[in-house]
Amino acid sequence: MSHVDAAFVERLSKLARISLKKDEIHRLEENLEKILKHIDQLQQVDTKGVEPCFSVQQDLICPFFEDESQPPMTRTELMQNTPDSISGFIRVPTVIKGA
Amino acid sequence: MQNLTKKSAKELHEGFLKKEWTAVEIAKAHLQAIDENDNQIQSFLAVFSDKTLAKAVHLDQKLARNEPMGKMAGVPIAVKDNIHIRGEKTTAASKILQDYVAPFSATVVEALEDADALLIGKTNLDEFAMGSSTEHSAYKVTQNPLKEGYTPGGSSGGSAAAVAAHFAPLSLGSDTGGSIRQPASFTGLIGMKPTYGRVSRYGLIAFGSSLDQIGPFSRTVYDNAWLLETISAPCKKDPTNLRLAQINYKNQLDSSSPKKKIGVPFQFLKKLEPRVRQHFDHALAHYKELGYEIQDIDLSILEHSVSVYYVLATAEASANLARYDGITFSKRNPEAKTLEEVYDSSRSIYLGHEVKQRILLGTMVLSQGKMDEYYMQAARVRQMMKHTVDQILKEVHFIMTPTSPNTAFRIGGIKDPLTMYLQDIYTIFANLTGHPAISIPMGMEDGLPLGLQIVAPYHQEMDLYRVSRQLEVANKHHLTHK
């Protein structure tokens, strides 16, 4: 069983790239603790020799198709939802320090 | 003029072709109902009044000129707002996609446009389809049209409420752990989650990619079958789409079938509320009368289904939602000064609590040192479930359970996340195993409906419709004799 404390939640928030406020951390501590307690029952299931299932289509036939080209979306279409752009390029804050 | 919103999709379409009413009259009747009543129900996030009317005018002109007509011409259909309609917003009920305009249409939407359906609007959902009540929408809380103050279920609660409130005879939802079937149960509708791979997911905002399927809501079995056959158009853009031939389900609903064995996991229903159990037993008794055989089956492995689901679905979600980073197409915090702040603060501000919680849980189960304990173990138990259900469905033709352990609950009535997750206790396994599953009304308790869930072997949606149709006929008979 994983011990859930504030440090644990903060470590996850770093990995997931979501900054969290104090009250959020507290609420997540409580909730994750409860959820993990429930999920931990899985450890009791004997799965020795069982292959993991990542997709039910392991034994359903997933067909291939011809490798034919399709007309692509235009740059304008692709960029219409970009929050910040300049001359058709996505703009982000300066990454290289001192540049 | 009769009230067109009371008609089924079949009646609307046929009446339109026979010129009993026009497409414009159909469109106006439904738009007016939305206009008058959706301020109470709150099922729509966007209503396409002008586009719907323009399309209806076009259809009336086509009919006047005797031009070939699409197969669902004149039928209003509402679409869950995590499915793309080109040129319209897709918000997934999240602030992070508040301004997002879909640059392409989902395959299911293209199929409906080709069929000349009237795509009337986009419906509310739990943010990114994560929830069982539609309370986790960043925009509005949808009411159950059958009882004020109660949820329509979720996550496709807007799509369910829209059909139950007669704003449209049909709608599309998506189902990752029960998000079509549970709202169908709560609102007295028919809701179908097809076999994984039957319906294209192209243009559906991904939540748990190995679990997600798009499916229909309707008030009649016929309409549901009709919509499924239309949206199951083969699609090359979704690599998991099986590209099966479309089946004409709706014309075979009343044909007889030798498949009469029903499996029920009685052990698994032990804790069920007596009143829910009563309705379930009543439905089973009805099938018995029709010559079905009821058999006890052992599905004890399913006691782990909620755990397996919340490991695998959150793992997949944490990966799928990594794309909302404030850089390419999702909302960016304008205050962010550094690249790190763009990521961290945009996701912090514009994602809701439930979504963050699931991303964090998914991040945890995939993290170094925990992956084998959680993610791999859950995937192994999933394999065992799939094997068990597969074996059982070789012995019986159907598995039946209630869709939900309860009727619709009050808005704000469930605060604890685990209690909310346990809402899906009967529905989740069909997503984990990929089998088709339907929910159909089986009774009413205090003015709120209860659904019966039926699960069938892969690709046997036809059997699900056939057996559902038998209960629908019985229910109607029952009601007219009241």
Task: Describe the 3D structure.
The complex is a heterodimer of chains A (99) and B (482). Chain A has three helices and two strands, in the order αααββ. In chain A, strand 1 and strand 2 form a beta hairpin. The relative contact order of chain A is 0.07. Helices cover 33% and strands 4% of the residues of chain A. Chain A is mainly alpha-helical and 99 residues long. The radius of gyration of chain A is 23 Å and the shape is flat. In chain A, helix 1 crosses helix 2. The model of chain A has no long low-confidence stretch (mean pLDDT 90). Chain B has 482 residues and is α/β, with parallel strands linked by helices. Chain B has one domain: Amidase signature (AS) domain (Amidase signature (AS) enzymes, Alpha-Beta Complex). Chain B is built from 15 helices and eleven strands. An eleven-stranded mixed beta sheet of chain B has the order 1-3-2-4-6-5-10-11-9-7-8, sandwiched between helices. The longest helix of chain B has 24 residues.
Number of domains of chain B: 1
Please report the distance between the alpha carbons of the first and last residues of chain B.
29 Å
How are the strands of the biggest sheet of chain B laid out side by side? Answer: 1-3-2-4-6-5-10-11-9-7-8
Q: Mean pLDDT of chain B, rounded to whole units?
A: 96
Task: Work out the helicity level of chain A.
Answer: 25-40%
Main sheet record of chain B:
11 strands, mixed
Overall mean pLDDT of chain A stands at 90
Share of helical residues of chain B: 25-40%
CATH architecture of chain B: Alpha-Beta Complex
Largest two-chain interface: A-B, 51 and 71 residues
In CATH, what is the class of chain B? Alpha Beta
The CATH superfamily of chain B bears the name Amidase signature (AS) domain
Classify the fold: give the CATH topology of chain B: Amidase signature (AS) enzymes
Radius of gyration of chain A, whole Å:
23 Å
What's the β-strand tally of chain B? 11
Residue stretches of chain A low in confidence (pLDDT < 50, at least 5 long) are none
Give the overall silhouette of chain A.
Answer: flat
The count of DSSP E runs of length 2 or more, i.e. the number of strands of chain A, is: 2
Give the helix tally of chain A: 3
Number of H/I helices of chain B: 15
